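User:
Note these tokens:
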Amino acid sequence: MQILGNKGLVRQTLAGGSQLSSMPIVNTGLFTAGIQSVQTFSTITTTGEFNQQFHSIFNKLNISRQKNQQQVYDLLAMDSHVKNTLRKKGVALAWKYEQAEILMGGKGTTKWSPKQRQEILTAGKVHRAEGHHINNVAKHLENQANPDNIRFAKNKAAHKAMHGGDFRNQTTGEPIDRNKRLKQANYKRVAKNELYGIGMVATIGLGVGFTIGFTVKLAQSGLSIENVKVAAAAGAKMGVESTFLGVMNHLLVRGIGEAAKSALQGVAKNIGLMVTENLSRMCKMAVTGGMAITLFSVYQFCKLKLMGYGTKESLIRVGRSATYSLTILVLSIIAQGLWGGCAGTVVSVGIGFSVMVFKFGQARYTKDLVERLRIYTIQKYEPLM
């Protein structure tokens, strides 16, 4: 009975250690803080540039639209028989809208070929293409300079077809809301950029988490087909957790990162430091890494509580992990400041690789120790059995 009690105690102790070993001692996302900071702030910068470009173009086009429309009203108010002289301005402005939409990633209002879209970007219009007034000028003088009243035909024959085969025919139709199309084109490219940013940090998190989880689990269990499957499942689980934390960190930094970076740069200026590209990168790493530590600490505390640990014990473990993570972050930032370039990223990834090697060795050592203990126990009690 005593032997069985000891075995039960050993199994219980090993199970508890195995459960705890499944908890990362440091945020795996911190190892890639340099890479993730570049990706996250690149997303912020690109979206900002997209929106800035959109507002600049949108405002200029609408100033021209209002100016042309006022000229139309002035012309119509004059006692003159020639009141359709501004129709070409509507076509010219419509081309500018078409160019702006294609510049923002749209395809334009006509089924342009890729070559024709490129021609619009470089030359401002397509050779031989003509502007068609959807609602003909003779009956709708007030819309002669309205770019929304213009639809493009690829050539004269297509333009004639829009008039039913005779240019003297009257035409009517639904105007094109070109302002709305510009907004949609910008929204789509911004959304695509944001989704790309999320996808990249998710891929990084999944890759790092899976690699560490798979390697450590395989080291614990030994190499076999069944153990590879188990290790793959463990790696997938850790990969999902790492992906979740990486995406959440990205979204949080995406929300407050620019303001936090500006605040850190302001502090640097106040103490007499010149804000260089390298200092800016250091600030980005600090923001991304600091947010990663905070987020992981909250996650780790909740997970420890669910595993049955008391509040005090959980806080102690989280504190140790946070301290270790902060040390890695500080070392990475110092390396970035000293050597510039990708030094911070190299250091953080290097430490991450070292931790993985250490955990691999630790797992192998634990496995060998347990095996020796099992053999020793059997040999010790074999005469009694």
